[in-house]
User: Fold these one by one.
Assistant:
Number 1:
Amino acid sequence: MKRISLFASAILIAGSLSFLSSCNNAPKSQDAEVVDTVAVVPEETQATQELMIDPSASAVTWIGVKPTGQHNGTFGIAPESKLMVENGTLTGGTITINMSDIKVLDIEEADENNAKLVGHLKGEEFFATETYPTSVFTITNVEAVDASTIEVVEGEHSTENPTHKITGNLKMMDVEKSISFYANVTMPSEGEVKASAKFNIDRTEFNVSHMAEGVDVVKEKFINNTVNVGFDITAKAAM
C-alpha cells in the first residue's frame, strides 16, 4: 500500500509540474526582432496613396501568460491610423493604439474580475493609461518575403502564410524601439489593404516589468516576460 501511495504521489507531482510548465510557456510564435535604434521613416512621394484604417474592423490582440493560466484581449485602434501604399504595394503607415480601450476577452464582462483586471492593466504597474493613453507603431520598411525561405513557427498564435517582413518604430510609454515581424499582407481590391500578424515580444523591453521573471518574485506569482501580440488590420481609401 505504501509503495502504491508513493507511486501515486509521484504521478501527482509530475502532473502538477507539467501543468505549471505548460501554463508558464508563452504562446508558440516567432519572436519579434527588437533593436534600440529607431529607424528613419520614409518620405512620401506623389504616388503615395493614403488608406484609413477601419477601427471597427481592426484590432490589436494580446495574450499574457502566468504559471496559473493566461489572459487574452484586445486594444482598440484610433481612427486617425492609416497605411500608405504606392503602386499597389504597402510602403508605410502609422497605427495609433488606444491603450485606454483595453478589453479582456477570457473573463465574462459581467464578472467583476473582468473590470478588476482591466483596471489593473490600465494602472501604473502596467500601462499607466492616464499618463500614456496611446502607443504608436510607425512603419519604416516593408519587405516582401518568400515563406519557403523563412523558419515558420506553426500554430494559432503565429502569422499564417507570411508574405512580408514589416519593420517599424514602436513607442510605448516613454520607450521607443524598432521592431520587426512577419505579416500576411494582401490587397483584395484597389484601395484596400488587409494585414495580419502574430508574434511574441518581451514586455520588459518597453518597461512593462511588473511581476517580471528574473525579479525577486515568488515563482507561482510571476508573469511571463513574453507576450503574444497580434495585428488584424483593414484599411481603405477615404471616401
Number 2:
Amino acid sequence: MDTLRSNPGTTFRASPGMLYFLQRMVIIHWMRAPIITILGFWIRLRNPSAAADRPDACESMQAFQPALNALEQCGYSPLPPLLTEAQVDEMHAFLRDKRVVDRRDPARTHPTDTLPAGIRLADYTMTDILACPHVLRLANDPRLLELATRYIGCKPTISAVLLRWSFPSDAPGAGVQAFHRDSDDWRFLKVFFYLTDVDEGAGPHVYVRGSHRMNSTLRLHTFSDKTIEATWGDAAIKVLGPRGFAFAADTYGVHKGMVPTTRPRLLLQIQYSLLPVFAYEYRPETYHGNLALDPYVNRLMLRRG
C-alpha cells in the first residue's frame, strides 16, 4: 500500500487522483450525508452484509453498542478488550528483528535498535504487518466488522493497516503530530491498538470530540493547539491506556498523535471505509493462512495463494 502523488509526478495517476479530490471537494457536512447514503445503498446491493445470516450478530454487538453510540455522537470511543497481554507479547516477539521504514526516506529501512538520530516516525512494511500475529484476526474480528458496518452503513472495506513507532523528540508536532483531519473517504472508521503503555509522555492520541460532524475545508491543513483550545474549549481529550488498549475514532474529525517526550509508542491502526482510498496504490499480499476471511472486506490487502 503506497501513497500516490496527488500532483503531477512519477507516481501521479489521473483517475484515482480525480476520485480522491472529488470527495475532498464536498466539505459541507450535510451535503456529504446523501452521497454516503447512496454509496452505502449501492455497496449493500452488490455486497450484502452477512450479519442477517449470523444469529449471534446482535448478541456480539451488545458490548459494542455503547461504542457505536459514542462514535455517532462524539466521533471517539474506547472499545471492550480485544487483545491480551500474552498476545501483545507475541506481536512484539515477531517484530523484534523486523526493520522499519523511515517516513522521511521510504527507500531506506532500519532495525529498531539502531535508528539514525532524528527519526520521529517509522512504519513496518505491509508484508510484516500482515504476517504479524493477531493483526489479521483483529482486523477481521466479527465485532469490529459489525461495528464498522453499522457506522459506515454497509459492508466495510479494510483500506489501510498501519503499524507505527513514534519516538521521543523535543521538536514541536508537525504533520500527523499536529491537529489535522483525515480525508481518506466519504465515510470511514479507524480502530487503534496501543501496543505499548501510553501515558502523557508516550505520545497519546488526542481527539476533538464532535469535530467529525463539522464542515471541513477545501485545503487540508494543520491547526495549532491554541486554535483548537479557542475553538473547541475542553472538547479535546487525550487517550491514555495500557498496552492492548483499543479505541475507535472517526478521524474525519480533528485529531493528532502527540509527540512522545519520555518513551516511544507503538500503535496498530486498522481503517474501515466505504471505498478504497484513492490516494493509495494497493498491492495485495498473497495469503496462505487458514483464517476464514471475507474476500470483499480484505480485497485491497490480501489475495488467496
